[in-house]
């Protein structure tokens, strides 16, 4: 069993109320091979919600800030912790997460300027899962290498 970003399974939970449907991911959920999670919704955020990006504060800590300047770090951390709990319950060894997200991005995230600029980095959930021994994959990995198979 593994986790997948809910938006990749076709659930309308993105910040803009839409999804990032990936038919292969949706099929994995449909056949019971994967559990969809949205850390942002698990953290108590509504859908839709203001766009958010990660910034690094003066002490070097990651903060998640909306485009309007509201600090949502606590909600993003709570969502990451709840996602990890779910992963442990289902004994997930892998997670297939949506790139660029301040929660789920595992290779690239937006730079915090809301300019569309990508930088190397990880979202809060991806980082927590990796620290706890869960392999985080992207939708690109699924398409290129079919890495999601057990």
Characterization of this structure:
This protein is α/β, with parallel strands linked by helices and 150 residues long. The chain has one domain (2-145). Helices cover 29% and strands 21% of the residues. The chain has helices at 23-30, 39-42, 73-89, 124-131, 139-145, and strands at 2-5, 34-37, 52-56, 62-66, 94-97, 108-110, 118-120, 135-138. It has a four-stranded parallel sheet with strand order 2-1-5-8, with helices on both faces. Helix 3 (73-89) runs parallel beside helix 4 (124-131). The longest helix is centred in the middle third of the chain and has 17 residues, at 73-89. The model has no long low-confidence stretch (mean pLDDT 93).
* Strands in their spatial order, largest beta sheet: 2-1-5-8
Strand element count: 8
- From the spread of the alpha carbons, the general shape counts as globular
Alpha carbon gap, first and last residue: 8 Å
Succession of helices and strands: EHEHEEHEEEHEH
The biggest beta sheet reads: 4 strands, parallel
What is the CA-based Rg, rounded? 14 Å
Structural class of the helices, strands and pairings? alpha/beta
Brief description of this entry?
This protein is of the alpha/beta class.
Identify the notable features of this structure and list them briefly:
29% helix, 150 residues, single chain, globular, 4-stranded parallel β-sheet, 21% strand, two-stranded antiparallel ribbon, 5 helices, 8 strands, alpha/beta
